[in-house]
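Hi U.,

Before I forget, here's the chain from the pilot set. I'm dumping it here mostly so it's searchable later in email.
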Amino acid sequence: MTPLPAAFAVPGALDTPTGGYAYARAILARFAAHGIAATLVRLPDGFPNPSEPDLVETARLLADVPAEAALLVDGLAYGAIPAATIDALARPIVALCHHPLGLEAGLSPVRAAALVASERAALARAVRVVVTSPATAATLVRDFAVPEDRLVVAEPGTAPAPRASGSPEGAPPALLAVGAISPRKGYDVLIAALARLADRDWTLTVVGPTDRDPATVAALRAQAGEAGLADRVRFTGSVDDAARDALYAGADVFVSASLYEGYGMVLAEALARGLPLVASTGGAAADTVPDAAALKVPPGDVDALAAALVRVLDDTALRARLAEASYAAGRLLPTWDDASARIAATLRASLEATR
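Structure:
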């Protein structure tokens, strides 16, 4: 099969340590195996809040993509590109949507509404829309008027990993949370819940970039300090793969208080390692984590999260049952090869549909 030329347009640095960029890196690395000769088009860093110069440069970069190449645009940029810019390209575009931009926590109502309107208009112009979960697909059909037959679900892959061994004997139970520090991740809800558990032994390690939202990081540190938890809550910032693997290996419980997830790659990573979970059900997270592997709570519910944490900390037999179910589910997770194959087929179809 002759390789299909393609361009993958992604805003900012590809090595940015978030789930969305990890998805892009994994797909790009595997395209060649599925007959796609892909090049990376680096869009300006300002997305999803681009300046006017960012939009002008974006229009130029996308217009320079050869006509014979399939074009895939990452949703962090695509939903904020004006419809007029997309129309001017006069070519088929495949959009990749991790989760709708307007559903990000912490936005003003005006900005959220503007992003929803912009993304709805942009998605209407895509010949195909790749999403990372059935839940996100349902959201796009219901709230963004995307026809079901234009949607392709390509769930993230999860690499096999050694089973977590837990904290050393005699040490307090180690809670682990992973994800960039932002309002959507609900770390304030988690700290509020843990403040009610100050009489129990535990430690919390939060792994993820701290430079994307310094105000939120400062607020969380202050919240932990005011609750008397400063010596029990640790923010590591970004870490390398070896350090991250070590933290997973030494954890006893994985905790996610996220308000919304388009899939929840870190949840899948926890399942791959057989960690019991306490997880909120925002967005696709409810589907990513099997019921038998987690205590699930509504997003933003401090009372429910605190109660679930009490149960999992106090009941070692419960933790063991959740861990067994988690490890079993982790063996069945999709692979990156599955995802890249689906997207490769979608890119081919995007060009064939216009011929």
